[in-house]
Design brief:
This protein has 220 residues and is of the alpha+beta class. 30% of the residues lie in helices and 28% in strands. The strands form 2 sheets. Strands 4, 5, 6, 7, 8 and 9 form a 6-stranded mixed sheet that branches. The longest helix has 21 residues, at 73-93.
Length: 220
């Protein structure tokens, strides 16, 4: 397993230059010569891109527009922050990594940069738990905030973008997870066929059937 890193040069008190990198798995600064991160144990690799099988979780919060109409902007901001903290905690608990937060949506990866044999199951269970967490706090959130979640598994290209240097995943798998999220009902977790095939023995499902996906020639 490879961890994309960004080199950085530091100068010691004696004037000697020391090359360091940042572990993308945990964020610690480590010597560039290290093969493994001494903090989290993740392997450090010098290549910038690789293909990985990952499960993508795309979760979008529904109802904040109505909430914003009735509450002070500062209150809404604090609620959004707390929701993201609750959701991120569940993602991390199940072994995933938050890839990015876009507006009132969060994109998480299971299988990169750290992979497990059951990443698809971990991703679905994290998604289900996120729904439970939001439901448990419905009174605190004014009863109007719900989640729509799409989960999809497949091959992506992971690496650091040249423009920003952030470790991220790109590919149709990510786009399809977003389309599944859009097609999901508030309070629902909608998964793609590959995710379903990998988890149907341990997680009960209700079949939704073929779902049209905006921007795709074929439905999901």
């Amino acid at each position: 397993m490879g961890i994309v890193w960004k080199p950085k040069i530091l100068r010691t008190r004696s004037g000697r230059t020391l090359a360091t990198v940042r572990c993308v798995a945990c964020g610690e600064t480590i010597p560039a010569t290290s093969r493994f991160c001494p903090s989290c144990g993740a392997r450090v690799a010098v290549h910038g891109e690789e293909r990985r099988i990952v499960t993508v979780v795309f979760a979008d919060m529904v109802g904040f527009t109505s909430l914003a109409e009735r509450r002070d902007p500062e209150q809404v901001k604090h609620l959004v922050d707390r929701c993201f903290q609750w959701m991120t905690a569940e993602i991390v608990t199940f072994g995933g990594r938050v890839d990015k937060i876009i507006g009132d949506a969060v994109l998480a990866l299971f299988g990169a940069p750290v992979a497990h044999e059951d990443d698809a199951e971990r991703a679905v269970r994290a998604a289900l738990r996120m729904q439970e967490v939001i439901d448990e706090r419905t009174d605190e959130l004014g009863g109007v905030v719900r989640l729509r979640i799409g989960v999809n598994t497949g091959e992506v290209l992971v690496g650091a973008l040249n423009a920003g240097g952030d470790y991220t995943a790109m590919g149709d798998v990510v786009n399809t997870a977003n389309r599944l999220q859009t097609a999901a009902q508030p309070g629902e977790v909608l998964v793609g066929s590959t995710t379903h095939a990998a988890t149907e023995r341990v997680i009960p499902y209700v079949e939704r059937g073929v779902v049209p996906a905006k921007g795709r020639e074929e439905p999901v």
